[in-house]
Amino acid sequence: MNRQIIINADDFGLCDGVNRGIVRAHTGGVLTSATIMVNMPASRQAVEFVRKLPALGVGVHLNLFEGEPVSKDPCVACLLGADGKFAYSPSRLSFLSVPRRSIRNAIATELAAQIQWAIDNGLQPTHLDSHKHIHSFPVIFDIICNLAKRFRIGGIRWLFEPGKVCRKP
Questions:
Q1: Residues 106-158 pLDDT 10s
Q2: In terms of Cα–Cα distance, which of 63, 137, 135 is closest to 95?
Q3: For 107-124, b where at least 16 C-beta lie within 10 A, e where not — what string?
Q4: Any alpha helices (H) in the chain, and if so which ranges?
Q5: Which of 24, 40, 54, 137 could form a disulfide with 13 if both were Cys (CB 3.0 to 4.6 A apart)?
Q6: How far apart are CA 118 and CA 85, in angstroms?
Q7: What is the value of pTM for the model shown?
Q8: DSSP label of 36
């Protein structure tokens, strides 16, 4: 039986140390994939590393909790605090996304901007996942599925592993 395992590292672009750790794990033969947080301080450095690592698959680690937004659209302001940074916890944002169309629109706008940033910087995203697994919440999962279709991204991380994989011996 032919099997494949993907070993992915999140938070590419977070900082220099994370970036260098990802590069080392990939060049050492362990890591096959990483997901970039495009709104983090070392995201441009991560892109430079990717240009030298053609075998590294790179997805987008969609982020609504750390740092500042990528989108300049005024609708995204409802996701931010007075400091201009993302303001909500995962549970609060999930809860607010159900009744409030303005929150859902802001989420879709910001996440589209993050994906577009990756593409504009020369990346061809292999998949999408999210910081704090916010994409596992049904309302937000629908948004991310629509974005995957729109940007022709073939995969979204599925959080629920088969029992055989997760079971302790």
A1: 999 999 999 999 999 999 999 999 988 888 888 999 999 999 999 999 988 87
A2: 137
A3: bbbbbbbbbbbbeebebe
A4: 16-27, 43-51, 90-97, 101-120, 138-150, 163-166
A5: 40
A6: 20
A7: 0.90
A8: E
